[in-house]
From TrEMBL:
This is Nephrocystin 3-like N-terminal domain-containing protein. Residues 72-99 form a coiled coil. ANK repeats lie at residues 621-653, 654-687, 688-709, 829-862, 901-934. It comes from the Eukaryota. Residues 168-332 form the Nephrocystin 3-like N-terminal domain. It comes from Cladonia borealis. Keywords: ANK repeat, Coiled coil, Repeat.
Length: 998
């Protein structure tokens, strides 16, 4: 039997194992044990076939897979031969009784073969399990890296969008000369502008599918982005480029070094990369592929907030210098976008007549069975819609939807005769669609308006399950009636083609408007169609929250998916409508302490310091309504509660006041409202000791920080040491993560009454923490204060020492610029900042320190070693040689210092096998080696001992070179030759050490 290598290979081997097991099913004796092992072997092989089905195995993994397949095939084929021989001999033994004894002897002899086969089976089983574990571990690591890179799932969107295309659509684009030129070019960019509704997104999915199936290989990558106006919050520039990196990572094995370093750099430190850093990694990825194709759909829908769109454009176009990345972009013809791509080729997108025809032919079966649409009428429909569509696929779709619901042929023909194009044809199509919705029967009309209200006026995208419950809420009922739930297809049908299914995440199906232009249309027509929407949404949310089931603790969240939306956004809708009925519902809800406490517990669960268990129903009194209003930022509701006598400064079970909740959530108007009250304490601490000012600062709410600092009795300095530490620690964290962190720090440090030299945990100061900031801007603000204590010590380390330890060169540079900085402070082990920088081969840091005139370069630690010892302590020769040269460039460096064990720096260089450093020392006139007492011989012996312990290879060569250097040096010293002359006479092999290494 012959096998290939791969998934089919293991499946075939597994089948062979199963066949052998079947043959041995009734066997006894020596084959019984093998039979049982073969059963497990077969199961293992089937499991392996699933594990290796991942097509992105690393080369060494693929090699291991193939070797395992060969070994499995070999052992099974040998076993097959033995089994066949056994069965043949057994059959002969039954027919020839006279030969039974002879056959038995032969079978007995074959037991050695059986034992050998069992051993081979055991061996290959071990290898297979190891292979599976390695691959599974690598795949798990890959999944974790990809999950960290981005949670966006564009491949899922690609599958959904591409499934909507009609076979044969988009061929005009794939066969166009401009597309072919782009495909064949290196580093080309193709901009595909098209009017709204032209079908750009479906065409983008066709291009992606074409690239994936016709172009992508192990050396050619494909990645893509679907920009979506509904997902601006999740589609930041960092998330978008992260998704591109994620898609490329999923196509390669092993993961590239640039991606691994990027992941390790930020994951280990728990920091977020910048978009610029992510683009640098994407640029580095270009070197790992022969070519990369990137598709960006609907660039015009990319958010302009925080310059997301501009960053994406600039970042992608900056990669064109590599000539390895091809980019295709679809967009509406927005001048600012067209200008960015003006030097690149353009290919206009319009709905091709053939594509529209394909689509319409695929939809003809949607007409009612009572309406017989013959071939001739079909042709009329297609022709009329193509003419009216004017290159807009969306318009063709809406027009067809207007025909599908008609009940007879006359109505269809009359509608066709009225079709017309024109500049406002899309708006006219929407107007006609809304008119059809209004002309539906009352239940269908109400269903459509309710659905469209939730989709267009809701505060976030709702899932299908949420919308189904929302539109089923009846004001007169105290719970949902399961019989009133409406099927999703009926909801979509009532909306006459304006609504479609979609996903905002892989596992959350939603209802959304059919197109971006639909959202724009309804934004223009809000007053006309949704004048009562806020009242309807508010009444639905409050009615839902007043259901009987929510008066207690025990209810099934899965049965009530709409609760999440209702509890978060009831107040927003209530405050945006002036209606007495809504005010009554609001009061009814807020007067119910148990419902309010349950609602607050639900929204605040992710913000509590010790988890949701801290909030029990009996922990609350009616004042928790104020907490809920403050938490949700409901200024009008909070004001009404204050009028009704609610106490504004009562603490909840976590010791948090309404003011602190409003501060934490960044609700400036509620904070302003509460700060006008004399009975509100602006310095009230929670159980962790955090004041509202500290909460505002660590959460990056700069406007609220200004508001609180303007308060006359605001307290800046906490009393308890742990509280001080926690506040400054969290502020440090915030400065590293929030854009306005430095501005907040500047506001705080501008106050004369703030104690910025405060010491906590035994001496840690804010300045020391500032040395760890991602940006040195915070450190600059501290150092601008003349009275800052720059030499404060915490656990025997100064701020300067900390910068040396973490290689924060820019921070060190700023500290060294202070006239009062002390560079020679030692820790409890006698180490200075120079010791640490030298030990960790931090070249720039060492350079900065050695440039100081007040540096005690020969200061020794508790072992009697100067920083020069640390510079040559590691095994890496090149950086240590450079560091040693830096040290020796100073005229006051003592290279003859002996540690407590009698070793000098030269001994360290010899022992660690660094011929370059040894050579450097031997050229120095001030080198002191006592040849008379045998020190020279001991140095040679030291090198020989280390050589004998080293593995063969370059390390041995390094020690041999050192031995030659020392012997030549001592030979010349015995002849009273100067060190300079000795250098000229050193063995030639040293001069060629680098060549030998090659």
């Amino acid at each position: 039997m012959s096998f290939g290598f791969g998934v089919g290979d293991f499946l075939a081997v597994a089948k062979l194992a199963n066949d052998i097991w079947q043959k041995l099913h009734d066997s006894l004796g020596q084959f019984a044990d093998i039979r049982d092992e073969i059963k497990g072997y077969s199961s293992l092989l089937y499991s392996v076939s699933k594990t290796v089905s991942n097509q992105y195995l690393a080369p060494e993994q693929a090699e291991g897979r193939d070797a395992s397949a060969r070994a499995c095939r070999s052992v099974l084929e040998d076993l097959q031969k033995l089994v066949d021989k056994y069965r043949r001999l057994t059959n002969e033994a039954h027919g020839l009784a006279a030969n039974v004894r002879q056959k038995a002897k032969k079978l007995q002899w074959d037991q050695d073969d059986a034992r050998d086969l069992r051993a081979r089976i055991t061996s290959t089983t071990t290898v297979l399990r190891g292979l599976c574990e390695t691959i599974a571990s690598d795949q798990q690591a890959r999944r974790e890296l990809c999950r960290w890179l981005s949670e966006l799932d564009f491949p899922a969107e690609q599958r959904e969008i591409y499934s909507r295309h009609q076979h044969g659509s988009g061929e005009w684009l794939l066969q166009s000369e401009r597309f072919k030129r782009w495909l064949e070019s290196e580093g080309g960019v193709l901009l595909c502008p098209g009017d709204p509704g032209a079908g750009k997104t479906v065409l983008a999915s066709i291009v992606i599918d074409h690239l994936w199936n016709s172009v992508r290989t192990g050396r050619i990558g494909v990645a893509y982005i679907y920009c979506d106006y509904l997902k601006h919050g999740g589609q930041t520039s960092l998330h978008l480029v992260g998704s591109l990196l994620k898609q490329l990572a999923e196509q390669q094995n092993p993961i590239s070094e640039s991606l691994r370093s990027y992941y390790d750099e930020h994951r280990c430190r728990n920091t977020d990369p910048t978009p610029e850093r992510a683009f640098k990694v994407l640029k580095a990825e270009c070197d790992n592929w022969s070519r990369i194709f990137i598709i960006v759909d609907a660039l015009d829908e990319c958010s302009e907030k925080d310059a997301t769109r501009q960053r994406l454009i600039e970042g992608l176009l900056s990669l064109q210098g590599s000539n390895r990345m091809n980019i295709l972009v679809t967009t509406r013809p927005i001048p600012s976008i067209l200008c960015e791509f003006e030097v690149w080729e353009h290919l206009a997108i319009r709905a091709n007549s053939a594509d529209i025809q394909n689509y319409l032919l695929g939809q003809m079966n949607r007409f009612s069975k009572r309406v017989v649409v013959g071939k001739h009428l079909q042709a009329q429909i297609i022709s009329a819609i193509i003419d009216a569509a004017e290159g807009m696929f969306l318009l063709a779709r809406l027009t067809f939807e207007s025909l599908v619901g008609l009940k007879n042929l006359k109505a269809i023909k009359d509608t066709l005769n009225k079709l017309s194009g024109g500049a406002d044809s899309l708006d006219s199509a929407y107007d006609d669609t809304m008119k059809r919705i209004e002309e539906q029967d009352q239940p269908s009309h109400e269903l459509a308006i309710r659905t469209l209200s939730w989709i267009t006026q809701g505060q976030r995208v709702l899932s299908i399950a949420e919308i189904q419950q929302a539109i089923s809420i009846e004001l007169k009922y105290s719970d949902l009636d399961s019989d009133s739930m409406i099927d999703c297809d009926d909801i979509i049908s009532a909306c006459a083609g304006l609504v479609t299914r979609g996903h905002d995440s892989p596992d959350n199906e939603i209802l959304r408007l059919v197109h971006y232009t639909t959202q724009e249309y309804f934004e223009r027509k809000t007053t006309k169609y949704f004048s009562e929407a806020q009242k309807y949404l508010a009444s639905s949310c409050l009615t839902y929250l007043l259901f009987d089931v929510f008066s207690g603790e025990c209810w099934n969240a899965e049965q009530y998916p709409f609760y999440e939306y209702a509890v978060w956004y009831w107040g927003h809708h209530a405050e945006n409508c002036d209606d007495e009925a809504i005010r009554i519902l609001t009061t009814t809800f807020l007067d119910d302490a148990r419902r309010v406490s349950g609602a607050f517990r639900h929204v605040a669960k992710y913000y509590l310091p010790h988890g949701i268990e801290r909030l029990k129903h009996n922990d609350f009194n009616p004042s928790s309504a104020m907490h809920l209003a403050a938490f949700l930022g409901l200024t009008k509701v909070a004001s009404k509660l204050l009028e009704d006598g609610f106490k504004p400064d009562v603490k909840d079970s976590s010791g948090v006041t309404p003011l602190s909740w409003a501060v934490k959530r960044g609700h400036e108007q509620v904070v302003n409202l509460l700060m006008t009250r004399e009975d509100v304490d602006p310095n009230a601490r929670n159980r962790s000791g955090m004041t509202p000012l500290a909460v505002a600062a660590i959460n990056g709410h700069i406007a609220i920080v200004r508001l609180l600092l303007a308060c006359e009795n605001i307290e800046l300095n906490a009393k308890k040491e742990l509280t001080v530490y926690e506040q400054w620690a969290k502020l440090s964290w915030m400065i590293n993560r929030h854009q306005n962190g430095l501005q907040i720090l500047k506001l705080l440090l501008a106050r004369e009454d703030i104690d910025f030299n405060v010491k906590f945990l035994g001496g840690l100061t804010p300045l020391m923490m500032a040395t760890e900031y991602k940006s040195v801007g915070g450190l600059q603000l501290f150092l601008a204060r003349k009275d800052i204590e720059v030499n404060a010590v915490f656990r025997s380390r100064t701020a300067l020492y900390r910068t040396a330890l973490s290689n924060r060169v820019e921070a060190m540079r700023l500290l060294l610029a202070r006239e009062d900085i002390q560079v020679n402070v030692k820790n409890k082990k006698g180490l200075t900042a120079l010791h640490v920088a030298a030990k960790y081969a931090e070249f720039e840091a060492v350079q900065l320190l050695l440039a100081r005139d007040d540096l005690e370069v020969n200061a020794t630690d508790e072992n009697g070693e100067s920083a020069l010892f640390g510079a040559i302590e590691n095994d890496s020769d090149t950086p240590n040689l450079e560091l040693a040269e830096l040290f020796l460039a100073r005229g006051d460096v003592d290279l003859n210092i002996r540690n407590l064990y009698g070793y000098a720096p030269l001994h360290h260089a010899v022992r660690s096998g660094q011929p370059g450093v040894v050579q450097l020392f031997l050229t120095r006139e001030d080198l002191e080696i006592n040849i008379e007492d045998g020190e020279g011989g001991r140095l040679v012996s030291l090198a020989e001992d280390e050589r004998d312990k080293a593995d063969e290879g370059m390390k041995c060569d390094a020690y041999n070179t050192i031995i030659d250097l020392l012997r030549s040096y001592f030979l010349q010293r015995s002849s009273n030759t100067t060190s300079a002359n000795i250098l000229q006479q050193l063995p030639q092999r040293l001069a060629h050490t680098d060549d030998d290494d090659d």
